[in-house]
Amino acid sequence: MKIPASVQHWIVPVVILVAWEALGRAALLPRYLPPPTQIAAALYEVAADGELLRAVATSLYRVAAGFLLGAGAGMLAGLGAGLAPGVRHFFDPLVSFLYVVPKIAFWPIFLLLFGLGHESKIAIIAFSCFFPVFIASRHAALAVQKLLVWTAHNMGAPRATMFFRVFVPAAAPQLFAGARIGLAHCFVILFAAELMGSQGGLGPLISEGEDAARFDLMFAGIVTFAALGFLGDRILMAVRRVVLRGQIIGTVEQFVR
Fold first, then answer.
1. For the stretch 95-106, what's the b/e string if a residue is b when 16 or more beta carbons lie within 10 angstroms of its beta carbon?
2. Is the pLDDT assigned to residue 38 strictly greater than 80?
3. Could you tell me the pTM of the whole model?
4. Is the pLDDT confidence value at 83 over 90?
5. CA 209 to CA 65: how far, in whole Å?
6. Which candidate, 236, 234, 235, 222, places its Cα nearest to that of 188?
7. Would you say the C-alpha torsion 81, 131, 59, 17 has a positive or negative sign?
8. In degrees to the nearest 10, what's the CA dihedral of 212, 218, 219, 224?
9. pLDDT value at position 49?
10. Measured at the alpha carbon of residue 24, what is the angle toward residues 22 and 25, in degrees to the nearest 5?
11. 70 or 208: which carries more pLDDT confidence?
12. Residue 255 pLDDT > 70, yes or no?
């Protein structure tokens, strides 16, 4: 009997959770690894008094604003670099030089420029997101088939029409790939920035649990962070399926989802 794919996805996580719970109840795990039921109880505790909702709202605002700014700028600059040699020659050295540097290393600079509020987090999230989106967008524009461009040009399509009706649709699969990587960068940098200095958000909640040796509370914050990242990725992939529904037809992706 074949197990449905929707069930197969949950086999390993469920086995891990069951084993984790059993080992925790048998006192075979260290104190800093509380069982899942204890983490769930801590999650309910902070959710009941409204602290979790406020923290989630704050972190979501920061990551959403940073992602929109960073991904938007990265796509525009990347497509421009792919289409215009002058733009490409301007951005390529800068991106090559800065891309390998951990973006959290710039946190003190953003902190001095924007302070402890939302602005510093949004700015460094956008900064971190820009680079993978730029690189994907640049290569996406350069990978557009010349035949599509020549056909549109020979049919008298103006530049704006060629950009929005030829280049962007043809580059869309790689644009979404870059956006997905950029979204993951956003959550990583948000986590680090909120832990290093923040007013509100999930980072301080995790730090509070660590400082008070409430490891169940600490894991509750981490689980919430992971859930937000998972939800954001699923939403982005849902948008991708709608936008690329015509391009997915006939590809391997259509049959393996």
1. beeeeeeebbeb
2. yes
3. 0.86
4. no
5. 27
6. 222
7. positive
8. 150
9. 85
10. 65
11. 70
12. no
Distance, in Å, from the CA atom of 206 to the CA atom of 213, rounded to the nearest integer, reads 11
Tokens 């990265």 found at: 74
So what's the pLDDT on residue 206? 85
pLDDT band at 252 (very low <50, low <70, confident <90, very high): low
Contact (Cβ atoms closer than 8 angstroms) between residue 129 and residue 71 = yes
Cα→Cα distances 89→77, 93, 98, 178, Å: 12, 7, 15, 21
Nearest by Cα to 167 from 76, 245, 253, 69: 76
How far is CA 253 from each of CA 19, 242, 248, rounded to the nearest angstrom? Answer: 34, 14, 7
Distances in whole angstroms, Cα of residue 15 to Cα of each of 20, 27, 37, 51, 85:
8, 18, 15, 31, 53
Q: Are 196 and 208 in contact (CB under 8 A)?
A: no
Q: Where are the alpha helices (DSSP H) in 84-117?
A: 85-98, 107-114
In the predicted structure, residue 18 carries a pLDDT above the cut 70:
yes
Check residue 253 and give its pLDDT.
Answer: 64
Options 1.10.3720.10, 3.30.70.120, 3.30.70.100, 1.10.10.10; which CATH number does 38-256 get?
1.10.3720.10
User: What are residue 56's phi and psi, to 5 degrees?
Assistant: -65, -45
Q: Which two tokens stand for residue 148?
A: 């599509």
Query: Rounded mean pLDDT of 121-129?
Result: 94
What tokens does 66 get?
């940073």
